Amino acid sequence: MKYRNLFVTLSLFVLCLVVSAGLFHGNLYGHAFGNRPEIFGIVSSVSGSTISIINDKISIDASNADIRLRDCDADVKVGDIEAGDAIKANGETSNGSFVAEKIIMSGPAELKGIIESVGTDTVTILGQNINTASAFCINGTPEVGKLARVSVRYSTSGLNALVINFREELRHRDKDRGDADNREYAA
């Protein structure tokens, strides 16, 4: 019995190693689930229609890519992407290069919290003033007390919104506990 438990434990350990190595290999080389080439990363530079990630080690040809912001239907161009933005690119490899067909972009950070104040072109969330004039998409109307999720970039002038989602209603995951701090977006 003692050796049987040890055998089962070792078998499970080896199985976990094999599965995780296979998943890592697939994501590392751009062949994610379903053998569809994908690249995830933080943009290190943009030059013309070429987006580079990992300190310019990997280049992505975005000249014919459909580029979108996460949670937004606005048209985005390669020139709208900046160093520090996060991207997910789907496409194909051609002659050793990655040619993107579709790119989903988000800012380097996302804030989610209750709106504390609303100005002409600003909202304050989590004590941070965010410029809303820079947003590609604003979903909903900002009002003090609403829950907001904002994808942001930092510039010398402060935080600039890329995509803003406002929600009117809040709900509790566990109403019985009365946990007021455990809020999420209304469905």
How would you characterize this protein structure?
There is one protein chain. The protein has 187 residues and is mainly beta. It folds into 2 domains: 37-106, OB fold (Dihydrolipoamide Acetyltransferase, E2P), CATH 2.40.50; 109-185, Copper binding periplasmic protein CusF (OB fold (Dihydrolipoamide Acetyltransferase, E2P), Beta Barrel), CATH 2.40.50. 14% of the residues lie in helices and 47% in strands. It has 1 helix and 14 strands, in the order H-E-E-E-E-E-E-E-E-E-E-E-E-E-E. Strands 1-2-3-6-5 form a 5-stranded mixed β-barrel. Strand 11 (147-155) and strand 12 form a beta hairpin. The radius of gyration is 21 Å and the shape is elongated.
CATH class designation of the largest domain? Mainly Beta
Give the fraction of residues assigned to helices: 10-25%
| CATH superfamily heading of the largest domain | Copper binding periplasmic protein CusF
Largest sheet: 5 strands, mixed, barrel
Number of strands: 14
Helix-and-strand structural type = mainly beta
The string of secondary-structure elements, in order, is HEEEEEEEEEEEEEE
Morphology call: elongated
Strand portion, in percent?
A: over 45%
